[in-house]
Design a protein that fits this description.
The structure is a single chain. With 328 residues, the protein is α/β, with parallel strands linked by helices. Helix 6 crosses helix 7 and helix 7 packs across helix 8. Helix 13 links the parallel strand 7 and strand 8. It is 50% helix and 13% strand.
Length: 328
């Protein structure tokens, strides 16, 4: 019999399953719920959502059946805790997990977005074990603090033995909540094995723009240096049993960031958490493509004088916009 083909919606990693060490989450950090989803073998798809209107969330749920979670960014997008809480509640009501990014590895910030309803937390620019431990404390061991927190971090077995009821309470309270590390620098790659070795990490997510700058190839995503870095990040993450992801936040026609590259990352490099673009980029790109197609076919039938009139109006509009921006 011919070999059974893998369904197209579940691309297989090129890394043999026998070479992948199962998520080293201890008894204290069981890989369940959203955390288990991100670290599981099959590919998961998400997208960045900036618009907080409920209608956008409802449309996403109704139309985009492949989207299993949304990425919400409090690092680059202005959102107060009230807005974030409402957004998380909307997606939670639709059964869509929310991965929320905080600006840095800060336990206070991580706990704040968890209190707002985040299903998972990701912190930007992770480079040290100390940063990872702080996030584990906030995301996986909430509400422990002080001496008891240090014991749970340094000697989980002793913590379980001496405080069984508290250990069970903390484990149940945080079950399924995901911790994701943003990998965005050359130093992150140099110390990558140490970062992955910290118990409690469920996935990593590459920030392509900052990583390209740190590698000395700013926005040259198609370069061999950048693509090799991705391969290293994805391969090692899967070997450690954690999710290997990337947020492709550039326009989809950007060299090195096209859908063809995404397919290669998944099929050949082992990427299994793929965050595709975002509502703003997708809206602007599709609008630009479709209007250009319409205008091209319309203007082919217009006299030259009418085309020049349209171009003159465009230049005038651009000039007025620049003047207003300078005034701001």
């Amino acid at each position: 019999l011919p070999p059974k083909k893998t369904p197209p919606f579940i691309p297989q990693s090129s890394i043999p399953m026998s070479d992948v060490k199962k998520n080293a989450s201890s008894k204290m950090f069981p890989a369940t719920g959203f955390a288990g989803l991100l670290s599981s073998e099959r590919v998961k798809y998400g997208t960045l959502m900036v618009c907080t209107h409920p209608r956008f969330a409802q449309m996403l749920k109704a139309v985009c059946k492949d989207v299993e979670f949304v990425f919400l960014d409090t690092e680059h997008m202005p959102q107060d805790r009230g807005d974030l809480a409402r957004t998380c509640a909307i997606y939670s009501g639709l059964g869509i997990p929310t991965l929320v990014r905080v600006p840095k590895a800060c336990a206070v910030m991580a706990r704040a977005v968890i209190d707002a309803g985040a299903t998972g937390v990701i912190a930007s620019y992770i480079e040290t074990v100390a940063q990872v431990r702080e996030l584990v404390a906030a995301v996986k061991l909430k509400p422990l603090q002080g001496e008891l927190l240090e014991l749970a971090l340094d000697d989980p077995a002793k913590f379980e033995k001496e405080h069984p009821k508290t250990a069970k309470y903390v484990r149940d309270l945080n079950a399924g909540r995901a911790l994701v590390l943003n990998i965005e620098s050359a130093k992150s790659i140099r110390d990558y094995d140490k970062l992955l070795a910290v118990p409690g990490v469920d996935a990593v997510l590459v920030g392509p723009h900052d990583l390209s700058v740190s590698l000395g190839v700013p926005e040259d995503f198609a370069s061999e240096k950048f693509q090799n870095a991705l391969k290293t990040i994805f391969t090692k993450a899967r070997a450690a049993g954690v999710g290997a992801g990337i947020h492709q936040g550039q326009r989809t026609n950007t060299p090195g960031m096209t859908p063809e590259y995404a397919i290669k990352w998944i099929n050949e490099y082992g990427c299994n958490v793929y965050v595709h673009s975002g509502d703003i980029n997708l809206f602007a790109t599709l609008l630009d493509q479709q209007l250009k197609m319409i205008r091209k076919n319309v203007e082919e039938k217009l006299p030259e004088s009418a085309i020049k009139e349209v171009e003159a109006k465009e230049k005038s509009s651009i000039a007025e916009t620049l003047i207003k921006m300078e005034a701001i």
